[in-house]
Design a protein that fits this description.
96 residues; alpha+beta; YefM-like fold; five-stranded mixed beta sheet; 3 helices; 5 strands; elongated
């Protein structure tokens, strides 16, 4: 059986509290305390107008980025650093 304990705690029939629901304004005020609750394993739900909106959860890294995804897919031209007179005239005007 699920039971509402106070205005913001939900308890299972066995007595364990499974969730804490807080409104956004309370979450702003008590963010550090809510983060500590989540770190201890408790579930925290942030609500707006008493409707559940988001879960506050521990961050789980997605893994390391894989570098070199485009290796061998393209080549850099030898003249990449050479100036182009047509582009220079667009920026600086014509020398004529």
């Amino acid at each position: 059986m699920i039971q509402l304990v106070g205005k913001d705690l939900i308890r299972l029939g066995g007595g364990e509290i499974i969730m804490k629901i807080v409104n956004i304004s309370e979450a702003k005020t008590n963010l550090s305390k809510l983060v500590a609750l989540v770190r201890r394993g408790e579930k925290v739900v942030i609500a707006k107008n008493n409707l559940p909106l988001v879960d506050l959860v521990i961050h789980k890294p997605e893994g390391k980025r894989k570098l070199g995804l485009l290796a061998g897919k393209f080549t850099v031209p030898d003249n990449i650093m050479e100036e182009n007179s047509e582009i220079n005239s667009m920026f600086y005007g014509s020398d004529t």
